[in-house]
Amino acid sequence: MSEKRSSRITVKDIAKIVGVSATAVSMALNNRGALTDSRREEIKRVASELGYVPNAGARSLRGSHTCSFGVVINYFNNPFFHDFFMGLEDVTNKIDFSYWVSQTWDDLEQEQKQVRKLAQLGVDGLIVLPCSKEISHLTEMTSRFNIPLVLISHSLEQLFPAVVADNIVGARMATEHLLSLKGRPVLHIAGPVEAKSGIQERYQGYCQAMAAADPDFDAQRSVFYVERLRAEDGYEIMSEILKYYSLPLSLFVVNDETALGVLNYCHNNNLRVPEDISVVGFSDIDLLESLNISLSTVAIPRREMGQYAAHKLLSKIDFPHQNKPYLRDNEIITTLPVSLIIRDSSRIR
């Protein structure tokens, strides 16, 4: 066992401090055995103060590596992750690693809960799509429990290793393409800019392109915000946009799912795409080409993101495997290139 793994708080550590056997500690933490209430509470108090996390994997494997890691995403049905998990398995299948997946519903409390549950399962590392810039639970995993962690899609000031898309460049490309259509305002449907770095970068790329094209550009009049980045959010924001702007107009939308809601609104309200409203999304999730009106988008190499995330995490796990098919990655942040794909929704003939 490596030094890192052995530094986690164990039942024996608690037993030594309290002055009881490891068996007594185990009974107290599992509410079993003939212990006095005061002794049981003392053991639980010490365990809490030490930051003890019950490790199901370690119980079953007697402290060995579990050959697994946890992946925390926002939604199980998020189409972004189809190719991402293919990339993940391109790497893990070569060394017989498995993984657990949890969803947060884009909620911080759920994220904190799922991260700790995966730690209890004894995973050797974590890949996390963070839903905010709150990091105390992530710091706890790395500093207190020595569980390696890699972020995806969002970086947090280089505090953790991360694999991200080049969001600023992608947003600039999308905005410059829409500006080339001429004769229509180019607006941005943004997400929670203050909460997520990737969303903030797309906002920055949009603003950079707009400011370069128009010295009088005012973001306060041109940016509309949604919270959850789902299709229903894109649908609902359209009525607000059309209160302030007449047709035709162009929309750079923070992600594809929100953009699909925009297309659905246009369909239900007899608005022509791209003649009345031209739309560009971000991510290039599956099936965009097969829509009645295919969606222009900025493509993220999602399979490669899964591969890089797996490589980056495995390189930080002290795992004694003879054939290590993963790359040693010295970069804290790995930024993947993006590309603009022009389809029906912004191709004006």
From TrEMBL:
Entry keywords, A to Z: DNA-binding, Transcription, Transcription regulation
GO molecular function: DNA binding
Superkingdom, taxonomy of origin: Bacteria
Domain HTH lacI-type: 9-63
Name of the molecule in the record: LacI family DNA-binding transcriptional regulator
Organism of origin: Limnobaculum allomyrinae
